[in-house]
Amino acid sequence: MRRLTPRRISLKKNDVLFYGTDDLMRVARFNDGQIGIVHGAGVIDVTDLCGVEPTEWPPIGPTRLVADFPRILPTLKEAVETRSPLQLESVRLRTPIPWPNKVIAYPVNYHAHGQEMSATYRASQQGFFLKPNSSLSGAGEPIVLPEVPGREIHHECELAIIIGRTARNIAREEAMDCVFGYSCLLDMVVRGREERVFRKAYDTFCPVGPWITTADEVGDPTALRMQLWVNEEPRQDANTRDLVLDIPGMIETAAAVMTLYPGDIIATGTPEGVGPVKPGDKIRIQIERVGEMVVDVIQGTGGYTSVLAAPYQLALAHA
Ligand code: MN
C-alpha cells in the first residue's frame, strides 16, 4: 500500500503541493522542452533517452515518446536509479504533449454542472468538441486573459486522459488499454452563446499538467476526487464516479468517429462550481493520484473581436 506524502514545492512562479511517492512514473516536460521523470522532489532529465530534440519545431518528440514509451521504459527506470535529479523547484514545467494530433473535449459531462448551466443535453447525447493544440500550456506558464469587456472568463476543472496507442472502432472493453496516463486540465472559456470552440480556443486556455502520471500508477480512475481553488477559495470539488459518459465511454465514442493516436488528449468535462477568474488570481487544481498544479492568471493585450461585442452574463444557479 502506498503512503501519500505531502510536499510543498516552490516553482519559479507557482507553488505546487503534490502528493506522491517515490515510485510513481510521472513524465514531465520542462524548461526549453526537455523531458524528465519526476521522482520525489526531483526531476531526472531523460531527454537523450527519449529521442526528443527540445528545440525542434514542430515539437512532436513528446508525442512520439508516448508511442515509444513501452520500449523506452526500462531505460527510463534505470536512469531514475542512476542519474542525479534536478530540483523540481528549479525547473519551469511546460505542457507534457505540446503537439498532439488533437485535443478532444466532452461538454456537460456531470449532471450538476449541466444544471448550473441550464443545459438540457449531456455529453452522452451531445458528443465532443475539439480544442486547438495552440491553446495548450503548462503548469509553469500563466493563463493569459484576452481583453473581452462585458464577458466572464471561467475555469473548468477537468481530468485529462492521455491516449497511449492508435485506436479506431474499438469496443468499450478495450478502451482502457488505450490509456497512457492522466493529467490535470483547465478548460478555460469565455462565457457566451457563440461557438463553443471559438470561445475556448484562446492561447493558454488549455493548461495541462503538471505532468502525465502513467495509467498503471493511477490505478482505478473511476473514483478520483478532483478539486479546484481560486486564491485558496474552494470552487469545485467532485469525483469522477459522477461522470455521465464514463472514461471507457468517452474513448469508445471518440474512436468510433476518428482514429485516436498516441498523445491525443481527452478533456473529460467539468463538474459544478465553474466561475470567473481575473488577473492576479491563482488557480489550483488537484486530482487524486494524478497531480496538482497552481497556474497564475494574468491580463494580456488584444484578443478582442467584434464577435464578442454583445455582453453576456451567465446566471449561475448558485451565484
Ligand atoms: Mn469543459
Q: Tell me the distance between the termini.
A: 41 Å
Mean pLDDT: 91
Query: Which class best fits the helix and strand makeup?
Result: alpha+beta
How would a crystallographer describe the biggest sheet?
12 strands, mixed
Give the strand content: 25-35%
Which ligands does the model contain, each kind named once?
Answer: manganese (II) ion
**Which regions have little confidence, pLDDT < 50, spanning 5+ residues?**
1-23
Number of strands: 22
Work out the radius of gyration: 19 Å
Helical segment tally? Answer: 6
The shape, in one word, is: globular
Helicity, as a percent range: 10-25%
H/E element string?
A: EEEEEHEEEHHEEEEEEEHEHEEHEEEE
Description:
- The chain is an alpha+beta fold and 319 residues long.
- Helices cover 16% and strands 33% of the residues.
- The protein has helices spanning 61-82, 111-116, 123-126, 196-199, 215-218, 247-257; strands spanning 5-10, 15-20, 26-30, 34-39, 42-45, 86-87, 93-94, 103-105, 129-131, 136-137, 143-145, 153-155, 157-163, 179-186, 189-190, 206-214, 225-230, 233-239, 265-267, 275-276, 282-287, 291-299.
- The strands form 4 sheets. Strands 3, 4, 5, 6, 7, 8, 9, 10, 13, 14, 16 and 19 form a 12-stranded mixed beta sheet that branches. It has a 5-stranded mixed beta sheet with strand order 11-22-21-17-18, with no helix packed on it.
